[in-house]
Description:
The chain is of the alpha+beta class. The chain has 13 helices and seven strands. Helix 5 runs antiparallel to helix 8 (246-283), helix 10 (332-357) packs antiparallel against helix 12 and helix 10 (332-357) packs antiparallel against helix 13. The radius of gyration is 22 Å and the shape is globular. Flavin-adenine dinucleotide binds next to strand 1, strand 3 and helix 13. Residues 93, 124-128, 133-134, 160-162, 210, 218, 377, 380-381, 384, 386-387, 390, 405 line the site of flavin-adenine dinucleotide.
Amino acid sequence: MAIDFELTESTHEARAFYHALARDQMRPISRRYDDDEHARPQEWIDHYWGHVRGAAPRGGGRPGDGFVRTCIQAEELCWGDAGLYLRMPVSALGGAAVVATGTREQRDRFLGPFAGDGPPIWGAMAITEPAAGSDSAAIQTTARLDESTQEWILDGTKIFCTCGEGASQDPGGFVVVWATVDRDAGRAGIKSFVVPAGTPGMKLVGLEKKMGIRVSDTATLVFEGCRVPADHLLGSAEVKKRKADRGFKGAMATFDASRPIVAAMAIGVGQAALDLVREILEAQGMTLRHDAPPREQTAIERDVLEMEAELQAARLLTWRAAWMMNQGLANNLEASMAKAKAGRAVTHVTQKAVELLGPEGYSTRHLVEKWMRDAKINDIYEGTQQINQLIVARRVLDYPSSVLR
Ligand SMILES: Cc1cc2nc3c(=O)[nH]c(=O)nc-3n(C[C@H](O)[C@H](O)[C@H](O)COP(=O)(O)OP(=O)(O)OC[C@H]3O[C@@H](n4cnc5c(N)ncnc54)[C@H](O)[C@@H]3O)c2cc1C
């Protein structure tokens, strides 16, 4: 199958649409919601839910380039504000988990409401626990079936759950919770459950105060005797010990879909910083020469060209991983490559931007100091830099996770 890096005309249109949305609706409120951590950006939520959903250009693309477009949307909106992007009422990671592990009927049932006309709703996904982050197979949250009522009962604590406030509290929302139905079965015993907002026994106990993406609601959720109907277990309840990892594979499949999106988000933040550097340098009368031979380049030119190259390399890796996803190809290696590259690139590019702009970069007069803070999370969630490098090494060297860990 041929790979084509040219975007179709309609994808260009979509890109321009999201860029304008980012510039006109996100940038003007970016600083306010960074300062006022945890305030709900109602104007943005209403605007997105009421005017943007359904209004974005669709169709006309190559068959199957939808996921590349999703990445382009993520990049452009994070060029606007990565925190606000995360605070959009969408099914988000929760939706990705339903798609990766649910049946067709479950997909329709749980994701259908996101296309409805009701009030804004959110999805979230909760894997991480106080004693299980990178090693997600170590989760302690349990799910046991009450045979008499045919309900699953969840008990445990989930931390760092993005969109956890909206998804657990607002009507219509849901949290996909990963729990073990059989500790002795290890990874094979791990399953995912859809817990609708407001379910008794699911408690929002706090929101994380953070360095960056401060408008994003990162929640701690406690589950105590939290009951959901049997058909809220996504996929099959069967624990197939001989086919190890079966339930757990759902979680990993979710990451194969979400890592290219997080990579795209990182690139958007990095591009914002690079664009500002260019704008300020040009306003100061400096012309950046792309064609100057290396020995004639100024230090600033070399830095800017390196920033451009890093972002473009990350972007191409990201589009490849997204394109493979569209083709139904296994993209575990490519998704981790893109995520690792983009996480490192955005951290470097935003720090360099602050450095190049000096005190002006460090000051809150511009958003670049915020982008430097917003950047680092891309190297942490959805698998840290180290974990994604580990996955790449396993795939390239063909070592199982039991050997290379
Ligand atoms: C803002 C934010 C939002 C988040 N959103 C969500 C969410 O929506 N849902 C969710 O479930 N989780 C979420 N997370 C959790 C996130 O995915 C985890 O923090 C991440 O997976 C790392 O796990 P940990 O925090 O336990 O760190 P640890 O696993 O303890 O890692 C600490 C350090 O050790 C390194 N390390 C760990 N194991 C290895 C290894 N084998 N080899 C080399 N280095 C290693 C890591 O790379 C890291 O540098 C979020 C986190 C944050 C900060």
